[in-house]
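for the writeup, i need someone to sanity check this before i put it in the appendix. the sequnce is what the collaborator sent (i think, or maybe the updated version? ugh). structure was predicted straight from it, no edits. if anything looks off just tell me and ill rerun, i have time this weekend
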Amino acid sequence: MAVAMGSRTLFQPLSAAALASASSSSTFAGKHISSYPFVSTFSPVSPTTTTSRPHSTIVRAQRPTWLPGLDPPPHLDGTLAGDYGFDPLGLGEDPESLRWYVQAELVHARLAMAGVAGILFTDLLRVTKISNLPVWYEAGAVKFNFASTETLFIVQLLLMGFAETKRYMDFTNPGSQSQEGTFFGLEAALEGLEPGYPGGPLLNPLGLAKDIKNAHDWKLKEIKNGRLAMVAMLGIFIQANVTHVGPIDNLMEHLSDPWHRTVIQTMCGAGS
């Protein structure tokens, strides 16, 4: 390697210590930045001039964003799990609104994960004829012998209403729902860790992420899988509306003729 600095020789090599210093201070995601083709670890600078590249630009370049090279908005500083600077409408500029949106996304992500798992599992049982179950979008119209539809609706309304009320109260006053007397003496079994992350043997039986403040990796994995599940649910909705069958049926049809049974042919056939 050669540099040109003042009166020094044009091809004077860098010392091993200088190379180690330059590489050790420039890492990203466990790799040296020099291993990425779009980032240069060392650039020759004249001693008589100062670099015009501010430190904040370097920090932003090292942070992954949903669009490469994007300058994230100030209210998304990378501290939230799954924060890749995506807020084109500026909905999270207000701190209180951002706090609520984080909780709303978390709940929708968990519902979507449960929904995708339930739809795929029951659809697999139906297609393989292990159980005589209806396709998922007709399951709500099924009559049960042990209770009427009205009774099931009222029970669901009470149970979900109770759970959502407790969640909202814990959101507005963090830690209040883990106090004695707030849940029929079962507060220790729930052991709320922080808003949106209840714990205890009932909701965290494996004891994962007990130190929720430092469980960034667990939070990131959950929100990534939750966002994928929300996209999957949207695909399942559109799929059912276009093909009028379940997702396992669609998958089997595609595998039977992968080159001709695709989403393009399906959409073209539905539009004709």
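The beta strands are 27-28, 31-32. The radius of gyration is 27 Å.
thx in advance!!
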